Amino acid sequence: MGLFILRRLGLMILTALCLTFIVFWLTNLLPNLEKLAKTQGNARMSDEAVVSWLENRGYGQPTLIKYGEWLGVLPGYVIEGQDGTVRARCAPIGAEVDDTTPAFCGVLQGDWGQSTVFRNPVSEIIATRLGLTGKLMGFVLLLMIPGALIIGVLAGMREGSRLDRGLSTVSIMSTATPEYVSGVVLIAVFATPTFGMQFFKGTATSAMENATFENFLLPVVTIALYGMGYIARMTRASMTEVMTAQYVRTARLKGVSFTNIVMKHALRNALIAPFTVIMLQVPWLLNGVVIVETLFNYKGFGWTLVQAASNNDIELLLGVSVVSVFVVLFTQLISDIGYVFLNPRIRIS
Amino acid sequence: MDKAPYDGPILEIDRLSISFFTRLREIPAVMNFSASLQPGEALGIVGESGCGKSTVALGVMQDLGVNGRIVGGSIKFKGREMNTMTREELRDIRGSEIAMIYQEPMASLNPAMRIGKQLMEVPMIHEGVSKEDAYARALEVVTDVKLPDPERMLNSFPHQLSGGQQQRIVIAMALMSKPSLLILDEPTTALDVTVEAAVVELVKDLGKKYGTSMLFISHNLGLVLETCDRICVMYSGEAVERGTIEGVFDEMRHPYTQALFRSIPLPGADKNARPLVAIPGNFPLPHERPTGCNFGPRCDYFEAGRCDQGHIFMEDTGFDHETRCLRHAEIDWNAPLVAGAQTEKPAPGRVVLKMDNLKKYYEVAASALFSGGSTKVVKANETLTFEARESETLAIVGESGCGKSTFAKVLMGLETATSGEILLDNKSIGDIPIEKRDTKTIADVQMVFQNPFDTLNPSMTVGRQIMRALEIFKIGKNDGERRARMLDLLDLVKLPREFAGRMPRQLSGGQKQRVGIARAFAGDARIVVADEPVSALDVSVQAAVTDLLMEIQREHKTTLLFISHDLSIVRYLSDRVMVMYLGHVVEMGTTDQVFSPPYHPYTEALLSAVPIADTKVKKKHIVLEGDIPSAMNPPPGCPFQTRCNWKDKAGRTKCETEVPVVRTLANGHQIKCHLTDADMAEMEPVIQMAAE
To answer: Which residue from A211, B231, B281, B336 could staple onto B44, CB 3.0 to 4.6 Å apart?
Structure first.
């Protein structure tokens, strides 16, 4: 098992390297850099000025070297600019470059760079924003997974029954409604006086400090609904299959009661397949987070991503991507390990 | 639940009718089925697939699914009507009073639950005993079913056990609450013959020990003969004949039963002198049953205007024997079988195929999850050396894992040999994979597969599939010529020409297998590897397909390599037999040599394990201990030493350390065994016909 996890971790790091390089390359394309130069320097810079501005700040180096510096495996640049100032990647802006300036400063050293828009270190921004999104996601998962499993199991245990059809319809509808539709509808219904059901707030800004039922339920439900239908469908499919399996018949003909058949015999087998889907769903939910956080003005990770992208905030965008990549890979690792635990046929081979 | 003492019949089924309801129509699956079972008695229900025998079992259990319903009659268990029981009452009875053993042990055990827990559940539900007591009981029962190391067994998951062990666990589970009635639904169909023999023996012993009544459902007449006291033959949803084993086997009074017996290869049948008689026609679909006698259209004794005039009732013929035949008193049941077309045994021609020291080893990773690291070598085939001649049938016999399918793969070119040679017309083809073989070689060596249901493309017409084979073999210049050739091939396998336009799903199993044969012979194959070609088919169809193969072989002088585990059919049709065990050829010789002493100890056990549906046959009783060892981890010395009954005679240490060399006895009869000639000479025949 230990070896298995090690191998998976190794593979994960390799994937992360490849993915971050792609993101790095895309964000460091020339048009992006020109835009950066113009927003940071002077909007009316001449083309030559742009080039020298970029050269002075190390952006002129080959992409691989820049990537190495950003990663922290190559020493940061120290460039004496055409304007005579010596700039180093590792020296804070405005500070003198001297012997105390560290040679390496990259992601590995914990230096994620400086956000050009928020004027704060990227690591700081990501930490706070990720915390906020973590809170949102936590509640979403808390609502979504048990809900989806209950719906799926209830629907799947008696295939074709009225309960099955009802629940299936609900889950298909919920998964067919994207967040930007359901969010708007939910706001219109529950956060405006139009229908006389103004129970909740249409904005979740206050939930960042103090989450209450009133200000947090709508964003949580909006994300959860979408994923819930999907997982419920998978659980139902898996459950119906298990319920027709021969070993369930064996249990039935052993005299096991229906409740116990579902709980003791069918459930664990039925969860093996949806478990992977649930874990796949977590990174997928990040999509929803982007929309919902913007919609409800909840300044979390998704909101930061939108801000970074629209403001051409390269370092922040990179940081956000790295974290996203790790979230995806990490959930995959958990899913693989969990799968092994659920399925004894793999565990003890 | 208390088990009140009761001394009437355990089970009384009276005119039971069960139907399945689809959107289109009601499909009657069982009609007017009656049976009764006394305490301690074993009743066998025999019939082909689709005759409703499993439906009866599930009907007794009152577990017919959403679509099935009991539409008439009554089922009384210990005098209590089951049809009107509530769910709770049923649940009390299931598992504690009536237990069931299923066809596929792997599928009927919960894969994600430890075996101990699955066993302990039974007394915990029904008797409310504590966990400790239930564990003690489980341990006792697992010991009873003769499983080694019971504690480890209880702590394992089902996938860690072999098929035979799993079936023993299912049996143990059924016995946990000491039921009064045990229903066995084809309990050994998925198992190997020697394992089957051991399981059947176990069931019989346990039945005696616990005094359990048994309802034994099987398609295998021989098995029913060995296990049951009474038998009920079913055909198309009806019981057609009912009586004691001796009564039905020796004095059958229904044409279907007679036809069934004539279509199975009993000792004494011979493909040339006494060919099998297949039952003509097909099994009627439930909604296409004829009026009058269901068997009428296929019956030799059919009398128009009488047999097709309405419902036929069971009639008593005396001696506790009933039959559903109007003419049972008129038919001369002792009339000898009109011998079918007798044929000359073709003389084997020149050598076409030669194997020389063929070996096939596989390297596999020791553990599936963490690949890499240590690898193990699986010796799938060890030094195969033999010749096959023109128009000869060479049977390759052995249980699962003996390497017979690997050999077929190497011959076909799906795998290449590790060492040794395969010579086809003195041309080595052993290390040429199929992609690199020329068209002629591919067309010459063809295969008929075990499962006709999976080997036809479901979305291509039958004709198209045969023509596709012709295209690949580069036969015929254009589609027109190939079409003509395809129609000829359909004639060859005796399928109507209209079948060219049909889809595989519109064909029955036997018809599909005929298409498979037609496809194999598309390029005038000279060597046909038939991998268990009839084992997925019903008994009455088996005979027809076997005969077809034989006939084509006679005409085309084909060399037939017949891979099978069914010794009855091997004895019937093969000229020479090769017995394999764990990759080794343990015995080889002509059919007569192999089927009479001296035997290899494995052949002896194999012969004894095959159930024979003939009351006149006396068999020596040999039961092998344990399972077939894994090919990944073969025992040292003789591959068979772990289960051999003769080991003491041949010298234990010798068997455990040395692989025996092949010895040639009289007339090319080869045996791989340490036994001395004197010991061999002492061997008695396993199967003897009692003097008539």
So the answer is: B231
**B545 CB contacts (<8 Å, ≥6 apart)?**
B510, B513, B514, B517, B533, B534, B537
Task: Choose among B63, B102, B159: nearest Cβ to A252.
Answer: B63
CB atoms within 10 A of CB B22: 10
| Contact (Cβ atoms closer than 8 angstroms) between residue B95 and residue B122 | yes
Is the predicted pLDDT of residue B359 greater than 80, yes or no?
yes
Task: Output b/e per residue, A64-85; b: 16+ Cβ within 10 A.
Answer: eebbbbbbbebbbbebeeeeee
pLDDT digits (tens, 9 = 90+) for B26-78: 888 888 888 888 888 889 998 887 788 888 888 888 888 778 888 888 888 88
The helix/strand/coil state of B70 is strand
Does the beta carbon of B678 lie under 8 angstroms from any beta carbon of chain A?
A: no
**B466: helix, strand or coil:** helix
> How many angstroms separate the Cα of A41 from the Cα of each of B342, B498, B635?
104, 84, 80
Which H helix or E strand runs over A141?
A: helix A122-157
Q: Distance, in angstroms, between A307 CA and closest chain B CA? A: 44
Looking at the complex, report in whole angstroms how far the Cα of residue A3 sits from the nearest Cα belonging to chain B: 8
Nearest to B94 among A3, A254, A264 (CB): A254
Nearest one of B558, B459, B565, B566 to B517, comparing CA atoms: B558
| Whole-number Å distance between alpha carbons of B583 and B381 | 4
**pLDDT tens digits, one per residue of A251-310:** 888 888 888 888 888 888 888 878 877 777 777 777 678 888 888 888 888 888 888 888
Asked if pLDDT for residue B370 goes beyond 60, the answer is no
Which has the closest alpha carbon to A54: A30, A23, A88, A21? A30
Q: What is the pLDDT of residues B199-213, one digit of tens each?
A: 888 888 888 887 888
Whether B303 and chain A come into contact, CB under 8 Å, resolves to no
- Give Cα B531 to chain centroid, integer Å: 13
Structure token digits, residue B10: 């355990």
Tell whether omega for the bond before B598 is within 30 degrees of 0, i.e. cis. Answer: yes
Q: What was the ipTM of the complex prediction?
A: 0.74
**pLDDT for B544 beyond 50:** yes
Averaged confidence pLDDT in chain B: 82
- State the count of interchain CB pairs (< 8 A) between A and B: 84
Contact B534, B545 (CB under 8 A): yes
pTM of the predicted model as reported, rounded to 2 decimal places: 0.77
**Could you tell me if B290 and B33 are in contact, meaning their C-beta atoms sit under 8 angstroms apart?**
no
Which residue in A has a C-alpha nearest to residue B60's C-alpha? Answer: A253
Pairwise CB contact (< 8 Å): A257 & B91:
yes
Q: Which of residues 234-253 of A touch B (CB under 8 A)?
A: 245-247, 249-253
CA dihedral A178, A183, A188, A193 (to 10 degrees): 160
Query: Is the separation of the CB atoms in B542 and B534 below 8 Å?
Result: yes
